[in-house]
Design goal:
By secondary structure, the chain is mainly beta. Helices cover 0% and strands 51% of the residues.
Length: 118
């Protein structure tokens, strides 16, 4: 069982940056793939970025080049840094830990609100 808690959200001006963190407890994240998703009202949750156990990263096209996902297995924490924030980045951001071996081994945080506005 993994419990995930996000932090780092808030109000940011357009063009600014922020770093979200997601701390895991209950199990070490080194054996999981890790992702960040976001959701706005009335829309489906969408993948922002994912980092696999071996370090392979993939990004949604809208954030590619201005976002970095990283993991620190020693701190059991996942990070998402986004630069040059835009209004369309406004959403609730969720972190996810998943096992590629067992689809039932899938965990979500409670979300953190990011608002990009002047």
């Amino acid at each position: 069982q993994v419990t995930l808690v996000e932090s780092g959200g808030g109000l940011v001006e357009p063009g600014g940056s922020l770093r979200l963190a997601c701390e895991a407890t209950g199990s070490n994240i080194s054996s999981y793939g890790l992702g960040w998703y976001r959701q706005t009202p009335g829309k489906q949750r969408e993948l922002v970025a994912v980092i696999m156990r071996g370090g392979t990263r993939n990004y949604q096209p809208s954030v590619r080049g201005r976002a970095t996902i990283s993991r620190d297995n020693t701190k059991n924490t996942i990070y998402l840094q986004i630069f040059n924030l835009k209004a369309e980045d406004t959403a609730v951001y969720y972190c996810n830990a998943f096992s590629t071996a067992d689809p039932r081994d899938d965990y979500w945080g409670q979300g953190t609100q990011v608002t990009v506005s002047s």
